[in-house]
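Technical note accompanying the year-one report. For the benefit of new consortium partners, we illustrate the data format agreed upon in the data management plan: each record pairs a sequence with a structure-token string. No post-processing was applied to the example shown here.
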Amino acid sequence: MASPLLVLQDIHLSFGGPPIVEGADMSVAEGERLCLVGRNGSGKSTLLKIAAGLIEADRGTRVVHQGAVIRYLPQEPDLSGYATTLAYAEGDIPPDGDHHRARLLLEALGLTGNEDPARLSGGEARRAALARVLAPSPDVLLLDEPTNHLDLPAIEWLEQELAGLRSAIVVISHDRRFLQSLSRATLWLDRGVTRRLEQGFSAFEEWRDRVLEEEELERHKLDRKIVEEQHWLRYGVTARRKRNQGRLRALQSLRTERREQRRVVGDVRMTLGEGETSGKLVAEMIGVSKSFGERAIVRDLSLKLRRGDRMALVGPNGAGKTTLLSLLTGTLAPDQGTVRLGANVQMVTLDQRREMLDPAATLKDVLTGGGGDTIMVGGRPRHFAGYMQDFLFTPEQARTPVSALSGGERGRLTLARALTLPSNLLVLDEPTNDLDLETLDLLQEMLADYPGTVLLVSHDRDFLDRVATSVIAYEGPAQWTEYAGGYSDMVSQRGTGVEARGGEPRGSARTARSRAEPADAAPRARKPRLGFAERRALDQLPKRMAELEKQIARHQATLADPGLYARDKSKFDAATTGIGAAQAELAAAEEEWLRLEMLREELEG
């Protein structure tokens, strides 16, 4: 086994309140690929800062191998004090190092090196920071959300660049596909302590669920033990005579253990405020073109958005996804062509910049609109404090201003606010920013069950595969094409993923490989597979068929009563009608399941 370059042992830290980490361990060996996972607020970024030497733990040991070079990528890089992005990217390169590498990395990430750091967007600042940490070729790379604000070409370039490094890597990310591609081991930070799995992220969630189920079983056993001991204490003969102090102390110990057990942080619970049903046609674009000055965003595009669609827009940053979203929803007028919204459309928009949140407003004001203590959610009144807790906010945070919330908390608050509004069209512009994996799971489930229509912009490939029923992909300047299915389906159909603006793949490794291949080399397409809607139907139909069989059995039991018709004709008629409807629906469900299963077998060979 390779020798460890960085070791954290029995780390404890608190900032005057409840402990953030208490007994956490981490070991990083040469060339290791480790992902650090946990809920938002569990202390992942804090532990990474301790590993980087930026924060000193209250207690514990940090050991760095002599001569090992460690570089840390923060979530919010600070470029102040540098005249250009090149000067910033070269900041950690030693005098005798390769300064040319910094410029190559910047160019691979779409920067020239001459940009003024004060004028950079969030994505550009993140790219400059990536060039800075990669340029010295460190022994250990500590990366905190490296894909934040990056577009799909840059994310895929980063995957390839990191895969080719000799450096050991510890990464925090909410991008499932990125973690699955990169990690070979997983460190789970949960309730202040760490557990290690010697497999990559693809095996983590099943393992985590198994661990939590075992914990719940142990808690259940402990609860039963407490009840048994309390019963003995009150009614046992020995208890009445002698008050056996040994068992009494054991009971107190059990109670203390139960009280001090730190349970898993609660799950986010989401309920959508559903509006009235829209028409079958939600929006339609016919021959739409749009330009800003000499730059064309869309040219002669025609699209139809129908009720129930989950349409995703994908492309590099700056391609015009948000503009296309505004055109399709009628909030921006086209230069040519027509845009028509369907009947009875109630639209709710989730903006990627969280602009709907007033920094000075309190959490309560955002949820209630500055009104009383009650809000309407899903057509029912809810007390705002209970609704806050659904999104993992404590009652003490009710008066907290938005400006004091973390990025993940602002993301949850924006979702909480948007989901209280009645809608039949959800417009989500980068909804996954700053959300943890568990919240993403619940958002995906909610969107799958949402009876309305969804318009989506995202760079999260796994999220697109789980949610989208069609993808509108950027094909080059002002050109967009619709593909059925999710992101992987789009890649299967077009042979490549999303490319950088200008049509060239981003990154030195990709460019070198593409130049080395023959010009007529056919791209390797993924094996075709079922789309999202078909996969979901194939999963749900057996459950529905089982329910229908139970309904039929109940109706048959009712009709088996020979005196039912004479005694209660209305009940007889209801059972007769019900069994007919259930049998017809069951036959249709069985036929559809058989069709999808045959299609799946055909596609999967």
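Partners are asked to follow this layout when depositing records. The longest strand covers residues 281-292.
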